[in-house]
Amino acid sequence: MSQGTAKRGTSGGVSEARARLLGTATKIFYAEGIHSVGVDRIIAEAQVTRATLYRHFTGKEELVLAYLGVADEGIRAQVAKAREGAGSPADEVRAVAGAIADGIRSPGFRGCAFLNAVAEYPDPAHPVHQAVLAHRQWFLETMTELLARAGHEPADEAGRHVVMLRDGAMAAGCLFDPELVCATFLQGVEGVLSRRAG
């Protein structure tokens, strides 16, 4: 789903200026929101020129899509790593839930980057909204597939339940005690697992 394909520097790697712009935008967009941050601030904090920004991104929208692309890649990697160390499909679900809980407990946690972004881009036809939906569809399909392998029938209903538990935990995790939120979330996931067929 990664938007805004990485532009290469003369050495064949990702341009240092592009990486700085995207890193700066990622940090500020996540901490403060997207609409509240203008390109002038990103340019200043990334210590690049306006021309450099527009050489790497067509504008703020492409920068926002690249930010969501980075978030998407990070979450996919987190889920893949969690699944690697697990044995059964049910343990994979537990490991993914544990990784989500670890994120909620992390310093600077401010909710789900995708839920935060879609709140600022409510138009379903907008590319940012579409990027959020694509990420969420991948996560739903991943959890549904794991739950099907763990013996759930219907797995799509269980998958939606886990996604909703995750959404609630991500929203509550920056408002209330993250330890309590995580304990409730993990208990909810165990509840879904306990209702599998057989």
TrEMBL record:
List the keywords (alphabetical): DNA-binding
Boundaries of every HTH tetR-type domain copy: 15-75
List, alphabetically, the InterPro entries matched: Homeodomain-like_sf, HTH-type_TetR-like_transc_reg, HTH_TetR, Tet_transcr_reg_TetR-rel_C_sf
* KW DNA-binding (keyword) present: yes
Domain of life from the UniProt record: Bacteria
What does the record give as the DNA-binding region? Answer: 38-57
PROSITE patterns in UniProt: HTH_TETR_2 (PS50977)
Q: Name one Pfam family in it.
A: TetR_N
Which protein, by its recorded name, is this?
A: TetR/AcrR family transcriptional regulator
